[in-house]
Amino acid sequence: MPTFIPISDVCMLLILLLTVWRMPYVRKKLNMFLRWMIRKGPEVDFGIWERFDCRDLIVPLDTHVCRVAYALGLTETETFSLKNARRITEALAEAFPDDPCLGDFALFGSGVSGVL
After folding, report:
1. What is the tens place of the pLDDT at every residue in 71-80?
2. pTM of the complete model
């Protein structure tokens, strides 16, 4: 018989990882994981954690997202901080109120392709 880990335990583990590891790439990976588990949509978004809402997700930050968000005036800095991630998420929530992370791929793609 399979053993299931309660979602509250998984969330506590994620919070622990976020507080212990202060490296930006760790935060991005955890935010991406949460996004995949909560959002329903394309093939990469499993949407199996139905108790959570897409509106509560925070945009995962990387070099491209920070740079493009700064260039567009969505934030005042290009830093990898929770404050900056929340500012970008709030700005994207104006365009995508039900799922602010929907705009993340556009920021990332613009940065990778060199559009901005």
Report:
1. 999 999 888 8
2. 0.74
